[in-house]
Amino acid sequence: QFLQVRKRREDVAKHRRRMMELRQRLLEEQARTEQRLHTAHEALASLHTRRNHLDRWLQCARRTHPANDLLHIWHHEQFGTISGFKLGRSTKTVQVDREEMNAALGQAALALHLAQDLMDYTPAKYIVRPLGSQSRLIRVGDSRTELCLFLDDRFTLSLFGRSNFTKALVAFLGCLKEAVDFVENQDPTLQAPYVIQEDKIGEFSVAASNDEEWTRAMKCMLTNIKWILTWVAKYTSL
């Protein structure tokens, strides 16, 4: 009987040791599980942070439009500028040569052409053909009729009102009015900075022989183009 009691005590002791070992293994496994869970939570938090960052980047990218960077419209004193080129006639303090004016007009043509494509409407009278410093306007339905949106060596101020260049400016202003009308029809709450009527934008004529008036007309024209590009950047995508 003594031996039986002793054996039972030994069995109990063995069972207790096994239970202790099992408990220790369970505690160790629990610790490892908690560590893995903690690591997973950290990874999940990192993913959430990265996702939020990417969401903000995506929203920023959606608000960014290459036209605003490539065709930056601003001003320099009384001159409107586009891509750094001044558009207007020289003053006593600021010189604007023919090459710079043609470059600015080429950039303006590119801006309006890009806007027309992105807004996806068909021009009624003329199609803008941006060709750098020698951009042109082609009559719709008659590709042989074109107007040169640039100054050449034959141009003189005495011919300004009846030159091909002036006709091109008036036609270009008409194309700009079509784009303005399109935007205002899309959202009647919007209104362009300057009203366009025939050869006038705001109070100034693009056919004016007066240097100051013509320069102001060009500045108003660029302002309306900038307004259109802002709308295009917000509501369209490349």
Automatic annotation (TrEMBL):
GO terms for cellular component: phagophore assembly site; phosphatidylinositol 3-kinase complex, class III, type I; phosphatidylinositol 3-kinase complex, class III, type II. It comes from the Eukaryota. Residues 63-233 form the Atg6 BARA domain. Keywords: Coiled coil. GO terms for biological process: autophagosome assembly; cellular response to nitrogen starvation; late endosome to vacuole transport; mitophagy. Residues 5-36 form a coiled coil. Belongs to the beclin family. This is Atg6 BARA domain-containing protein. It comes from Fibrocapsa japonica.
